[in-house]
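Quick illustration for those who missed Monday's session on complexes.
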Amino acid sequence: MPELAYVNGKIGPIEEAVVPIEDRGYNFGDAVYEYVATYNGRLFRLEEHLERLARSMTALSFPPVSIDSIREAIVETHQASGIERAGIYLQISRGVDRRDHPFPQDSVPQVVMTVRHLAEKPVSYRQRGIGVITATDFRWHRCDIKTVQLLPNVMAKQRALDAGAFDAVFVSEEGVVREATSSNVYIANQGTIVTHPLTERILGGITRQVLLKVAQASGIPVAERFYTVEEMMAADEVLLTGTTTEVLPVVTVDGVPIGDGQPGPLCKTLFDALRKEAER
Ligand code: PDD
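Prediction with N-(5'-phosphopyridoxyl)-D-alanine bound:
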């Protein structure tokens, strides 16, 4: 089951995959990405990921890219790997040209991908829960576009790890909880799930879409509205969702226990529902 790379139509070993140094993704972060997971060898919510990818490219005025050819490339590279539980990272840059800020004339978007084994999160994360820290959201204002400009996310994640936590949750200067460094965030209060609405300040997670759907199907009320750090601190439960996090219970925020400091029942129900949906 080889881990593989794809570079503009060529599939091969990851160690041998290279891109030109003047790729605009490399010089300017002028690139978008998606991260898709497979369960039992099947791509989970591929169409939703492709739709979001198309939206990201349109938002950045990329030259046209055929989504059909991207779908084919993902399926072909994944099949060639034969990996049952894979994490597929796909990145498309605006193109390669001498380093200059304006969009290059007639640039050709560059498509690269890796297909790797996706390691399951340690069981203890779900059984005992994870801790997060809060971090001021100093990202740009178009977090709904999935670009590779992730330095604030990388810095905040490392700060969380250095503090012995799993992740950092971005909070606006006014105290509104946005999202984590690679996951969406929710609070649960008296059986209702609350999450940040879809605005330009957060990424519209595909797992978020699925979670809200399965919550509603399970009779769990959902509210998409702004909420503050104080509300999060006082919530019964706090959860994270994402393609790699799936659904994780947060039991401390800045070292302060949430509820009784144990993973809550809604988190478990929603994790089971997500897995059922993914393995269906
Ligand atoms: N990140 N918010 C941010 C900032 C993210 O980067 C991600 C995903 C999410 C959750 O989105 P989804 O449910 O579609 O995975 C929310 C991917 C996994 C990453 O950067 O690796």
